[in-house]
Amino acid sequence: KEDEDSTSFPLMNRVNLRAALAALADAMNPEDVFFLYLTSHGEPGVFSTVFYDVITRDLTATDLNLALEDAGIGNAVVALSACYSGSFAESLKAPNRLILTAADTDSVSFGCDDKNAWTDWARAFFLEALAQTHDFREAARIAQTSVAQQEQAEGLPPSAPMILEGDAIGRIIDSRLASLD
Q1: Do 123 and 111 meet the contact criterion of CB atoms below 8 Å apart?
Q2: Residues paired with 19 in a beta bridge
Q3: CA–CA distance, 153 with 159 (Å, rounded to integer)
Q4: How far apart are CA 133 and CA 124, in angstroms?
């Protein structure tokens, strides 16, 4: 509608994130695997959520971890597409979590542009890799390879997407995958 602007929609902030996670956690069964995908700009330890004059603080790794824990989200795959998104991995790691990032702790990622529907990592993960496999771990490895090849071909520094798998999440994902057969 013409009279709507960006503030007429729910904005990504700590309060809205916590409310959404709590509602979803209430609907989950213990064997479910929650998938959270966040994309934005990033700096080390920070995920950009500032919306000038409305939201004045970015989301930190601690904010996100506390939101997941306080909501009671159990098994989870957390995919972060932002520069320096790997800086969230250590704060988010847990036995029942798989953490996927578009870049390591010290690197930028690519493809973040208003003209693009997807970042380079998100395109590689969602459009290419998940078309080949239902396994988030394998899809992340495929995306890592695809992104590395693209960056090398374009002469870009490596973004080095990360995969951090908790001790228990692999068995849980394998069980869910077996139920698809």
Answers
A1: yes
A2: none
A3: 13
A4: 12
